[in-house]
């Protein structure tokens, strides 16, 4: 019944665009002098030039500075919650936290969370991780572009792009200080200051943000799960020394320090101590006809249907004893110096971003632009992979340097660095608008992993990997010509050369930076066009159609090179390939957007069809019976994705504004192979299945009230209720089990007078406890008897209801 109600709500939302379009077409055009001019026009830069969002023939959403503040958006997870058709998967290496946040738009689920089909930008400059959003202190807007954006944004914009645009500081002094306190030790201190360095010719903005909170969930040992703390700062300097010259330099730094993640395993099997007592309860409700490692039929207990709540209280190891300290203090196999890494269970991340832009008006209609950027991100995460209280389970591998009881702590570290540069010429005059340029993006990353139930820091150390490098050179163009006053045609494209490399790790402890010995490399060349036709049905209504191609760079399964012959044979039999070709998509799209009711209502409605070919999929191979795994990839998939997306905003009066948005994102798997899923489920033909980790239905809604406080000068009030809905997601392509639907309500109200505003808020008002992410996983035991097939699901737990009070003083 609940799912039927959710589908009905989305159907109503998607239908809103149709009658409004009809109204717009039936309305007689008023003389220009009498027609109401649009208010609060949102200007975006989806095509490397400033355009009204409702005149831009690209399917996208944009959140303004006011919306960002009213919805309290500070992270990529907040953006996803407030955007239909947008999911974030934060599950990786046995935890679900802020370490890695995989962005999924329209069901384009990447093969792993470290892969990506959607890239993030700040002021059009690429950043290496969505985590950079946390450090943007004063965003003018956040743009979410859907569909391939390769023509303008290049690599890894296969499914879309996210662009955060900074506010440009003015020549007047201003700023604000914001303090917030809330439940569960929730606090925030934000400050920003802007003003002139040399009048309007040289201005600056500096921001500082400190945030912290205790986790929502209490573990069996009495500690909280999901503790977070972040500190960030930024500086933007804008120069306008002449009317024809503009330049900006932006730098930001952030540090995240989190505790044990709010995640747990839903087990399909009972875990028992030697006396036969259950120490972790299995929740299997079905039996799958799978296969064992030798290919013989076997019955696999599993969980089918909608994933139930955890049967056990959340539990994890977090004691930083002498074994953990010895392991974390060892530099062997590490890519980070131990002093820069995590010091116990949890995560630490450091992120530095720098970019600059220069715009020069060469002629009244010609502008030259140069952008350059640099990113440096490192994170270190230490977690308990078994995820249950295992102190009653003896360690058969115990001895000097190891615990007497079974435990499986695990370290993951990663360093990512990249630089980019772009130069372009833009022309805008009369019926013709165009841009042409070139760009280079050179990124490299390396990581290390290690841990287990052996002698930590004595015989068990981290294992540092080699460097992966991807260098992309692109030459792009875009040209729009107005055939008539109402009809325009745009031809856009990029010729892209991707050169990918994989290197052996260099000797030393920690593993030193540098490229090392080249193992394998590949070069791929692709032309990525986009054609758009848009037509103004009326001055307030535009329809458009487009076709675009996108490509995601290829990858390597470098483990094949160094694997033993036995392991290599297992991996090749599972379908792993050394060189993995790029995956490709062709996106067909039609849409309508515009204004109605004297510009008080805005709307957009779009439909798309996107065949995804040569899909890259991750393949996990179990090696032996000691909990060892081989990870590789291959082009094993072909998927058709299609759907409808809509949004509308109606300012019904000076007092009331309504916002609605919805998406139906459908998928149909044509071809897919994955030995791990086949041995678990027995399924060999995945035809007709749906993409995992993506909500089929999603919607947002809001009601905002506000106005002047009667009888009080310079005083205003507002109240806002937000509803965010995400349908449950499949855990994998077998479509055996899915998470429950989530309905989250947030409420916020405040009053302001003069320079002071006070707001009260409650997030997750109805305390929805449904999972926010899910991933296939294993239950770890001393003899690893449950790692031959998937035996558990790793789930991310949500933020529970929280309330607080915020005070803001404008300077």
UniProtKB/TrEMBL annotation:
InterPro entries, A to Z: Beta-barrel_TonB, Beta-barrel_TonB_sf, Plug_dom, TonB-dep_rcpt-like
Location within or outside the cell: Cell outer membrane
Domain annotation TonB-dependent receptor-like beta-barrel: ranges: 370-765
Keywords: Cell outer membrane, Ion transport, Iron, Iron transport, Membrane, Receptor, Signal, TonB box, Transmembrane, Transmembrane beta strand, Transport
Gene Ontology terms: cellular component: cell outer membrane
Domain TonB-dependent receptor plug: 54-161
Subcellular location, principal: membrane
Membrane association type: Multi-pass membrane protein
GO terms (BP aspect): iron ion transport
Signal peptide: 1-24
Coiled-coil segments: none
Family: Belongs to the TonB-dependent receptor family.
UniProt name for this protein: TonB-dependent receptor
Source organism per UniProt: Sphingomonas populi
């Amino acid at each position: 019944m609940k799912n039927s109600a959710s589908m009905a709500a989305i159907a109503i939302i998607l239908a809103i665009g149709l009658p409004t379009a009809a109204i717009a077409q039936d309305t007689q055009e008023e003389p220009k002098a009498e027609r109401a001019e649009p208010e609060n026009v949102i200007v975006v830069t989806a095509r490397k030039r400033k355009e009204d969002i409702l005149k831009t023939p690209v399917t996208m959403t944009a959140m303004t500075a006011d919306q960002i503040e009213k919805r309290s958006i500070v992270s990529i997870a907040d953006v996803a919650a407030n955007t239909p058709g947008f999911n974030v998967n934060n599950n990786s290496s046995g935890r679900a936290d802020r370490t890695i946040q995989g962005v999924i738009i329209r069901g384009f689920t990447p093969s792993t969370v470290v892969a990506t089909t959607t890239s993030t930008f700040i002021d059009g400059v690429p950043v290496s991780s969505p985590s950079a959003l946390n450090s943007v202190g004063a965003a003018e807007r956040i743009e979410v572009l859907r569909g391939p954006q390769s023509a303008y944004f290049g690599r890894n914009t296969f499914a879309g792009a996210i662009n955060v645009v900074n506010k440009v500081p003015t020549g007047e002094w201003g700023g604000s200080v914001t303090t917030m306190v809330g439940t569960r030790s929730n606090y925030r201190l934000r400050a920003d200051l802007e003003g002139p360095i040399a009048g309007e010719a040289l201005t600056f903005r500096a921001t500082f943000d400190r945030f912290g909170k205790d986790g929502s969930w209490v573990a069996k040992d009495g500690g909280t799960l999901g503790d977070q703390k972040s500190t960030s700062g930024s500086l933007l300097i804008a120069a306008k020394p002449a009317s024809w010259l503009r330049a900006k330099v932006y730098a930001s730094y952030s540090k995240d320090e989190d505790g044990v993640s709010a995640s747990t395993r839903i087990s399909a099997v009972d875990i028992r101590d030697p006396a036969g007592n259950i120490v972790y309860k299995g929740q299997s409700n079905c039996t799958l006809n799978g296969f064992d490692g030798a290919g013989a039929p076997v019955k696999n207990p599993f969980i089918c249907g909608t994933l139930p709540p955890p049967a056990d209280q959340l539990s994890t190891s977090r004691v930083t004893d002498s074994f953990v300290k010895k392991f974390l203090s060892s530099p062997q196999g590490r890519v980070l110096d131990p002093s820069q890494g995590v010091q116990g269970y949890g995560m630490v991340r450091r992120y530095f971003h720098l970019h600059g832009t220069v715009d020069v008006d060469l002629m009244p209609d010609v502008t030259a632009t140069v952008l350059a950027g640099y990113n440096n991100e490192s994170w270190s995460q230490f977690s308990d992979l078994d995820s249950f209280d295992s102190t009653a389970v003896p360690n058969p591998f115990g001895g000097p340097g190891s615990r007497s009881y079974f435990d499986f702590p695990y370290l993951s570290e990663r360093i990512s660095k990249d630089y980019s540069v772009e130069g372009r010429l833009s022309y805008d005059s009369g019926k013709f608008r165009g841009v042409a340029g070139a760009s280079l993006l050179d990124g490299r990353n390396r990581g290390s992993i290690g841990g287990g139930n052996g002698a930590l820091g004595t015989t068990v150390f981290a294992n540092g990997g080699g460097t992966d490098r991807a260098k992309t050179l692109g030459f792009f163009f875009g040209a729009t010509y107005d055939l008539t006053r109402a009809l325009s045609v745009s031809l856009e494209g990029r010729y892209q050369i991707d050169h990918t490399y994989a290197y052996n790790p260099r000797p030393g402890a920690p593993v030193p930076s540098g490229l090392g010995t080249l193992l394998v490399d590949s070069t791929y060349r692709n032309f990525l066009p986009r054609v758009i036709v848009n037509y103004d049905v009326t001055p307030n209504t535009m329809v458009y159609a487009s076709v675009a191609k996108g490509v995601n760079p290829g990858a390597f399964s470098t483990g094949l090179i160094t694997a033993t012959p036995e392991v290599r044979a297992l991996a090749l039999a599972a379908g792993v390939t050394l060189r993995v070709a790029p995956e490709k998509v062709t996106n067909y799209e039609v849409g309508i957007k515009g204004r109605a009711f004297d510009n008080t209502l805005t709307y957009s409605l779009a439909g798309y069809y996107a065949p995804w070919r040569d899909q890259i999929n991750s393949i996990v191979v179990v090696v032996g019976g000691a909990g060892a795994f081989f990870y590789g990839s291959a082009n094993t998939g072909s998927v058709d994705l299609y759907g409808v997306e809509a949004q509308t905003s109606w300012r019904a009066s000076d007092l009331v504004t309504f916002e609605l948005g919805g998406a139906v994102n459908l998928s149909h798997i044509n071809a897919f192979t994955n030995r791990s899923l086949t041995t678990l489920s027995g399924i060999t033909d995945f035809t007709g299945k749906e993409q995992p980790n993506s909500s089929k239905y999603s919607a947002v809604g809001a009601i905002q009230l506000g106005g002047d406080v009667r009888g009080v000068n310079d005083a205003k009030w507002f109240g806002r209720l937000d509803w965010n809905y995400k349908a449950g997601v499949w855990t994998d392509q077998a479509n055996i089990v899915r998470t429950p639907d989530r309905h989250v309500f947030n409420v916020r109200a405040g009053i302001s007078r003069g320079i002071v505003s006070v707001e009260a808020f409650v997030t997750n008002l109805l305390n929805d406890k449904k999972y926010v992410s899910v991933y296939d996983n294993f239950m770890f035991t001393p003899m690893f008897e449950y790692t031959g097939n998937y035996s558990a699901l790793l789930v991310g737990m949500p933020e529970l209801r929280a309330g607080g009070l915020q005070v803001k003083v404008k300077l």
